[in-house]
Amino acid sequence: MLSLKWQRVYSDSRRRANGFQGVRVTKKDIVRTISEEVGLTQQQTKEIVQKTFDAIVDCLVRERRIELRNFGVFEVKPRAARKARNPRTGQSVDVPRKHVVTFKPGKYMEAKVRDLDEMIDQLSANLSESTNPTDQTGGESNSGKPDPEPPSGRWDA
Prior knowledge:
By secondary structure, this protein is an alpha+beta fold. It is built from four helices and five strands; from the N terminus they run αααβββββα. The protein has helices at residues 4-10, 27-38, 42-63, 107-131; strands spanning 65-68, 72-79, 82-85, 92-95, 98-105. The strands form two sheets. A three-stranded antiparallel β-sheet has the order 1-2-5. A hairpin with a 6-residue loop joins β3 (82-85) and β4. The chain is extended, with a radius of gyration of 23 Å.
């Protein structure tokens, strides 16, 4: 469960209309929340947050890896050159080799996300029960149609 100080960030008015699919949290939202929590001005907090992001990028460029305990590991990995296909024309295209940043979440983050999945599943089940009352026919709604499946949690579903 989110702590109260961070719940305001996630209850922002930019919530998407399609339910659990997300909230956009910006750097400004993070700065505002941290600023209120530690008692610094938003400008001071913004400078600290930006310097933290800059340090992560600089470290990735120099060391190619940064490990943040209880958060995760950022790593720069090479991608080999490959052949691809333009989906519009079907024409073969050469994609040059490049370096990409990968992220592997830490155990703490994975556990928190897993808790979120369980919470969403529970909310979906509760929502499904409250909007689809069953009658005596055993699992069918009053319209005679079978109960719909709960949302899959996929953005493209």
